[in-house]
Design goal:
Protein name: LarA-like N-terminal domain-containing protein
Distance between the termini: 21 Å
Radius of gyration: 22 Å
Helix content: 25-40%
CATH class of the largest domain: Alpha Beta
Number of strands: 15
CATH topology of the largest domain: Rossmann fold
Shape: globular
CATH superfamily of the largest domain: LarA, N-terminal domain
Structural class: alpha/beta
Oligomer: single chain
CATH architecture of the largest domain: 3-Layer(aba) Sandwich
Strand content: 15-25%
Largest sheet: 8 strands, mixed
Length: 440
């Protein structure tokens, strides 16, 4: 792994910073009704597909899987594979994740493995390649690329979660359409989408998806929706001609479950983990208030200072999004794979997310810097919030000023006593947002 090396610099001026006390607050975000039988719902979606039913026995069927940490994704994928095999066909898996995994075939297999999607777990071959076929160009000259292995299959099943995008707000954001144009387009296709910047996401991406849907062997989409507790609340089989309408309809449902913090202003936000499995940008701008795209205003809340304290296990060194923070630690910086984050930025053209913030020796120094630079009146009155990740918000740590606000919110459930933040002898934060280690 190609990781940077930073010195463990110490600044005596931080030694005198007294951190505010925090209380652990339990929150309840809107939840849905979980799908009772996930394998059964996947099986029904596939068996109701007219295109798959029309295949001759022994046909090859590519199952396209992406790089997101989707709830029960191994169960979903295995159910799809088993159903296709039971129908008398020959399933295999293709990674559909654009340029993720450092833009290499082996890297993309590694990304799937971090999600539990291995050949052993799935019982089929994973055919990973960055080679693509060219399906033509859009009216403005963008080339439509499509994974070579998927293109040569008799049918393709696209499996993806429908959710809001990390940097833009559109009727159709992340879902089956995006995976068709970007995920299955591999690195070449992702570059075709992102080359002209944010406007391409509203214009180029849909145009490329329409070409791919018309010319590729895509036979079915399996659209998934999660609620704020990461439970699957919708599993639908979608015919290719309905990808656009389904994405738009299910996005409205998905957005009703987005977990947010009810603050317009946060002085200091510490995020225990970022990762590509958590958000495409490492951490969700709906929580951090930072998309940091020059042509697009940042959404609320306004967060004066942000610190990143760790990477998720499943992200596999992909620390994209660290550039949205103001502070991080030597430990985090040295665990980031530069090849992966640089590849993402070179492909997406969103280079800001791969920059490095101020790197300090440990969590203690970072927390002291976070609070003392947050523009609050004094350290004790700083509105400090600590979250496990921007995806896991059922328990958070809040200081006094934010506690007063959260008690008036409809998502507030209860709170514990105020406590000092605890650190070990090496300066690692011991007081975590979740009482138990529930975050992988």
């Amino acid at each position: 792994m190609t990781s940077p090396t930073f010195p463990a610099l110490h600044f005596p001026l931080l030694d005198s910073v007294v951190l505010p006390q925090v209380a652990r607050v339990n929150l309840k975000h809107k939840a849905g009704t979980p799908v009772a039988d996930v394998p059964g719902a996947v099986r029904d979606a596939i068996k109701l597909s007219a295109r798959l039913a029309a295949l001759r026995p022994g046909s090859s069927v590519a199952i396209a899987l992406g790089s997101r940490g989707i709830s029960q994704i191994v169960t979903v994928a295995r159910a799809a594979i088993d159903t296709v095999r039971d129908m008398g066909h020959l399933p295999f898996v293709v990674p559909a994740m654009g340029s993720h995994g450092g833009g290499t075939a082996d890297g993309q297999v590694g990304v799937l493995a971090k999600l539990g999607l291995t050949e052993e777990a799935l019982g089929v071959e994973i055919r990973s390649s960055m080679e693509v076929v060219d399906y033509g160009e859009t009216d403005v000259g963008a080339r439509c690329k499509f994974d070579k292995h998927a293109a040569h299959a008799d049918a393709v099943i696209v499996v993806n979660r429908v959710k809001s995008h990390t940097t833009f707000d559109r009727p159709i954001e992340s879902g089956l359409v995006k995976m068709t144009a970007v995920g299955l387009g591999k690195a070449d296709g992702a570059r075709s989408v992102h080359r002209t910047g944010p406007v391409a996401l509203s214009d180029t991406l849909p145009a490329l998806a329409r070409i791919a849907l018309a010319r590729s062997p895509i036979a079915l989409g399996i659209a998934l929706v999660e609620d704020s507790d990461k439970a699957l609340v919708a599993i639908e089989g979608v015919a290719p001609e309905d990808f656009f309408a389904s994405d738009e309809r299910l996005l409205k449902l998905a957005k009703t479950f987005i977990a947010r913090l009810p603050f317009s202003h946060i002085d200091a936000l510490a995020v225990e983990q970022i990762g590509k499995d958590i958000s495409g940008a490492g951490m969700d701008h709906a929580v951090t208030g930072r998309a940091d795209l020059r042509s697009i205003p940042n959404p609320p809340p306004f967060v004066a200072r942000i610190a990143v304290l760790g990477l998720s296990k499943a992200t596999g060194g992909n620390g994209l999004g660290v550039g949205l923070a103001d502070f991080t630690t030597v430990s985090v910086a040295s665990s980031i794979d530069l090849r992966q984050i640089y590849m993402n930025s070179l492909t997406s053209t969103l280079v800001e997310k791969s920059r490095f913030p101020i790197v300090l020796a440990n969590d203690l120094d970072v927390m002291r810097a976070l609070v003392s630079t947050s523009w609050s009146a004094d350290n004790a009155s700083t509105g400090l919030c600590i979250v496990a990740s921007t995806l896991h918000l059922n328990q958070v740590l809040l200081s006094g000023p934010l506690l007063e606000q959260i008690r008036q919110s409809e998502i507030y459930v209860s709170e514990g006593p105020l406590q000092d933040l605890r650190f070990d002898a090496d300066g690692k934060l011991l007081t975590r947002a979740y009482e138990r280690d529930e975050i992988s």
